[in-house]
Task: inverse folding
C-alpha cells in the first residue's frame, strides 16, 4: 500500500474524536443493482470494520458502467450515508465497462518520468480511443530481471466523460472523490487484504449485469476482463418463464420464495445461465494457461451478489475441476458484533467485496 518511508506511530487505545485521523477512503461501489458502502479503519496490522450497508438503485441507473441517472443515484448514496451515520466525505469508487481499457504492455525499463512521456506520446497505439478523450494511468509492474531489461506496465485508460459523470454526481452529493479505481483491481485489493499472497488465483465478481474476471499470478494481475453477463439475466428469464414481476422473479431466484410449478424448467434455466458464466471463466483460464503452461490455478474465488446462488460454488468446482470458494472480504477484519450483526454481515459479505477493496485505499490528497 505504498506506505514505505512513513513510520506508523501507535496511538493509545482511547479514541478522542478530535484526534481521529482519516487515512482510508470510504469504499463506494456503484453497481447496476445496488450501491454498496464500506468504511474500514486501520487497526494494528490489519483493519477494523466501521460501517457497511447497501441500497437498491432504480432500474436503468447505469448502462454498461456509465451513469444514466446521476440525480437519482446521488440521492440514494446520500440517504445511505446518512442512515449509516457516516461522516466520511473522501470516497474511492471504481468503474468498468466499455469506457475502461486495461492493458498490459511490455516496454524497455525507464524512469517514471520517461515512462509517463512515452505513454502519453504512444498511447494511441495501445488504446482504441482518442487520447484527448481519456484519463490515462499506468503502473510499472517491475517484472524486469537481472538478465532482462524489459518490464510489464499496466496501462489504464478511462473515458473522460464517463469518469467526469461519476465525479460530478459525487460532488453534487457533497462527497469528495479521491480515488477512481478499476473494478478488477478493487477486487484484487480486497483479496490481498484478506488472503495474502497466494499463487495463481482466479477472482470472479458476478454482479447483476456484468462479471469481472481477474487472474492473479505471483502477486500480479495477468488478465483482467469484464464480461457482459450477470445475475439479472436469470431474473429476466424467470420473469418470462412464469410471466411474473421483476420483484417476484428476484424472490424466486434468491430462494426467498419457492415454487413446485415448473421446477424442472427453473432448474434448467439456472444450469443454462450458470454454464455461460463458467464458460467465460474457463475461457479466461485457457487464455492464461496458454501463456503460462506450467502454472496451475490454485483456486477460484467467487464474489458479487450473483455468487450467492445456492450451490454455485459446487457447480463451478464440478465444471472447472478447480477448488472454488466464496469470497469473504472481512475474513481478516476485526468486527464488533454489537455494531454489525454477524448474520447480516455473513449474508452481505460476497457483494461487499469491491466496496471493501476500495475501503482499503489510503486517502490520496
Ligand atoms: N441470495 C441470492 N441468490 C441469488 N442471487 C442473488 C442473491 N442475492 C443477490 N442476488 C443477485 O445479485 C445481484 C446483485 O449483485 P451485486 O450487488 O454484486 O450487483 P451490482 O454490483 O449492483 O451489479 P453490477 O456489478 O453488475 O453492476 C442481483 O441480480 C441479485 O438478484
Ligand atoms: Mg458490482
Result:
Amino acid at each position: 500500500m505504498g506506505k514505505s518511508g512513513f513510520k506508523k506511530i501507535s496511538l493509545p487505545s482511547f479514541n478522542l474524536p478530535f484526534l481521529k485521523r482519516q487515512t482510508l477512503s470510504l469504499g463506494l461501489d456503484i453497481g447496476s443493482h445496488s450501491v454498496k458502502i464500506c468504511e474500514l479503519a486501520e487497526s494494528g496490522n490489519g483493519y477494523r470494520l466501521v460501517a457497511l450497508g447497501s441500497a437498491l438503485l432504480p432500474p436503468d441507473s447505469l448502462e454498461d458502467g456509465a451513469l444514466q441517472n446521476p440525480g437519482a443515484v446521488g440521492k440514494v448514496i446520500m440517504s445511505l450515508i446518512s442512515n449509516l451515520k457516516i461522516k466520511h466525505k473522501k470516497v474511492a469508487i471504481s468503474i468498468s465497462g466499455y469506457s475502461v481499457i486495461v492493458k498490459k504492455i511490455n516496454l524497455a525499463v525507464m524512469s517514471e518520468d520517461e515512462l509517463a512521456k512515452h505513454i502519453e506520446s504512444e498511447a494511441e497505439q495501445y488504446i482504441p480511443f482518442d487520447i484527448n478523450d481519456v484519463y490515462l494511468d499506468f503502473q510499472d509492474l517491475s517484472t524486469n530481471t537481472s538478465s532482462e531489461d524489459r518490464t510489464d506496465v499496466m496501462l489504464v485508460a478511462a473515458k473522460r466523460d464517463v469518469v467526469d459523470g461519476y465525479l460530478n454526481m459525487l460532488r453534487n452529493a457533497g462527497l469528495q472523490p479521491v480515488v477512481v479505481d478499476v473494478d478488477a483491481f478493487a477486487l484484487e485489493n480486497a483479496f490481498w487484504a484478506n488472503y495474502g499472497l497466494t499463487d495463481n488465483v482466479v477472482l470472479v465478481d458476478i454482479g447483476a449485469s456484468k462479471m469481472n474476471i481477474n487472474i492473479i499470478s505471483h502477486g500480479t494481475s495477468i488478465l483482467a476482463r469484464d464480461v457482459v453477463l450477470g445475475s439479472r439475466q436469470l431474473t429476466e428469464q424467470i420473469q418470462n418463464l412464469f410471466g411474473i414481476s421483476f420483484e417476484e422473479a428476484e424472490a424466486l431466484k434468491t430462494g426467498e420464495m419457492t415454487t413446485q410449478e415448473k421446477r424442472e424448467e427453473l432448474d434448467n434455466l439456472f444450469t443454462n445461465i450458470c454454464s455461460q458464466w463458467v464458460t467465460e471463466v474457463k475461457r479466461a483460464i485457457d487464455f492464461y494457461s496458454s501463456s503460462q503452461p506450467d502454472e496451475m490455478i490454485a483456486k477460484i474465488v467467487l464474489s458479487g451478489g450473483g455468487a450467492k446462488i445456492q450451490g454455485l460454488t459446487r457447480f463451478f468446482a464440478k465444471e472447472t475441476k478447480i477448488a472454488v470458494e466464496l469470497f469473504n472480504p472481512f475474513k481478516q477484519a476485526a468486527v464488533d458484533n454489537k455494531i454489525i450483526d454477524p448474520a447480516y454481515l455473513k449474508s452481505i459479505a460476497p457483494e461487499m467485496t469491491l466496496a471493501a477493496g476500495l475501503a482499503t485505499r489510503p486517502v490520496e490528497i
Residues 1-20 have pLDDT under 50 and may be disordered. The two ends are 15 Å apart (CA to CA). The domain at 17-359 is CATH 3.30.420.40 (Nucleotidyltransferase; domain 5). The first helix runs from residue 70 to 83.
